[in-house]
Design goal:
The protein is mostly helical. The chain has one domain. The chain is 78% helix and 0% strand. It contains 11 helices and no strands. It catalyses: di-trans,octa-cis-undecaprenyl diphosphate + H2O = di-trans,octa-cis-undecaprenyl phosphate + phosphate + H(+). One of its GO terms (cellular component) is plasma membrane.
Amino acid sequence: MEDIILWFKYLFLGFVQGATEPIPVSSSGHLIIAQKLLGIKQNGLSFEILTNTASLIAICFIFRKDIGNLIVGAVRFLLTRKAEYKADFLFCLYIIIGTIPAVIVAALFKDKIEEIFSSVHTVSIALLLTGVALWLIRNLRGRKMDGDLSTKDAVLVGLAQAIALIPGISRSGATVITSIAVGMKQETALKFSFMLYIPISIGGLVLGASDIASDPNRSQLAIPYLIAFLTTLIVTYFSMRWFMGIMARGNLKYFAYYCFVAGILLLIFL
């Protein structure tokens, strides 16, 4: 019976991760809250890495055509220098530039950031700040498309992704908000945000592989981890599809409302 209860707890954690990873409400913050409510304390980063990998697989599957086109276009530009492929090459270059700030901050300060900010109080404040940012950009409609981005845009969005290393600050929220704020169209903001997510997540998986291999609970929690992984994979796919529809309609204000309500409730009750 205890095993079944534990399986359901990890099923719920996987659902929380999958549902919140694509949308601008902070998956890391919601996992902290969910673990506190369920009485589960994770030692190490194994669980976080596994569930993030599941989300990564789902998002890569959704954007597989975009990823393929960008890679092919960038390689063709390097080989032929034809102008028709330059936009793809530059987009890839901006993804690399936008990834650098988060890599630097993660390498130097990630453990310290998680030690200082991994509390429900921090999450509640971060949700309120995210809500304010979402509210401020709710009516913006940019004009920049994939081929109109600049190095400055990439750096600003990259800095936003670095700030999102603080638990409770949504990575997708920070990058989408900043992308829209610098003038990107909704679909370009969404695409650039999640193209940035891919290399940073792959890097986290590579660097965290040793944590998974050395996890003392690996055998004991193999089934719960598998349940969480599969749940995250499936739920991320449908949550991402849903968020793409929301972005197309420009209804980000509803996420602002959610962040306000969730942040206030957490301050009051937890």
